Amino acid sequence: MELLSSWCYDGSLPESYVMPPERRPGNLVIPLEKSIPVIDLQCHDPKDTIQQILKASQDYGFFQVINHGVSEELMDETMNVAEEFHAMPGLDKERECGKGANGSCKLYTSSYAYSREDFHYWRDAVTHPCRPLDERIQYWPEKPTRYREVVGTYSVEMWKLSCRILEFICEGLGLSVDYFSNDLTQVPKIMINHYPPCPAPSLTLGLSKHCDPTIITILLQGQINGLQVFKDGRWIGVQPLPHALVVNIGYLLQIISNGKLKGAEHRVVTNSRYARTTICFFVYPRDESLIEPAKDLVNASNPAIYKAFKFVDFVTAFVLNPDDTSEAVKELITPNP
Ligand code: OGA
Ligand code: NI
């Protein structure tokens, strides 16, 4: 495995990144006239905020939040540290990510299953769990020098924001507000993606069409376009808004809501001019957590449309089939007729 960011490529896209025509991004110029909803969290009527979040989660599975309470300075600092990390030489990155046992900090390129992929994706990534912080932080990179301090503070803010958004969602769905205050959300992870400028954006992708295997995801995407959401059979671009955060509903919340909320499919396209760095906060359950439609949302007229499964089995199905994650989990979640 060699990281994309440490290559000296000769200006052409290597064969292993060229997708078959049906998987290529198609028209790269996506009209921005239809965009995902933008929700102001400082709005003074919580009922209204809940309604907006619920509607966006049903219609799009995606929304952006503004006035979310996370300081702009912290967001900028975190983005700077993230960019500095990916700008370090490959060997430094490997050393900085090798401080703990397997899983405590992972560095990879393309997807988590590089060796099993039919073709590769144009991105590098580093990921590590971030709670409880004092147990996890000792395995994080120590270079750039401010990495632990800044990313640690950012992860605490993301944790608070994710709890707040999940409380809104609980109220909207009619679940008790502490429905997610348990094993369902206790293993959040930070992931810092980096998509270098790409020699042939029309032939490849930064990330293939997928739905996150999370409860929710909060994304800081910086200034560069690249994220697209699949809605009603077409792709919509997620326009970068300064200091907004992008929130998406994960597959697990789609299941827990018994299909009421949509774990939207999305992908990342590349561009030939600018590097793009993004920071994800993934809200994950513990491995042994049982994922199933919430009992309060299921009754005789609304039967469960998904089977119960252990989170670890779901993740395994995902990892085993990096090129088509939706096929991989279909069998696992579909109830017997
Ligand atoms: C992801 C993802 C979007 C982006 O990492 O799951 O969808 O813009 N990232 O990097
Ligand atoms: Ni994603």
Automatic annotation (TrEMBL):
Domain Fe2OG dioxygenase: 186-285
Keywords: Iron, Metal-binding, Oxidoreductase
InterPro entries listed in its UniProt record: DIOX_N (IPR026992), IPNS-like_FE2OG_OXY (IPR044861), IPNS-like_sf (IPR027443), Oxoglu/Fe-dep_dioxygenase_dom (IPR005123), Plant_2OG-oxidoreductases (IPR050295)
Signal peptide: none
SUPFAM superfamilies: Clavaminate synthase-like
Organism listed in the record: Gossypium tomentosum
Protein family (similarity comment): Belongs to the iron/ascorbate-dependent oxidoreductase family.
Pfam families assigned: 2OG-FeII_Oxy, DIOX_N
Keyword match Iron-sulfur: no
Protein name: Fe2OG dioxygenase domain-containing protein
Molecular function terms, GO-annotated: metal ion binding; oxidoreductase activity
Keyword Acyltransferase: no
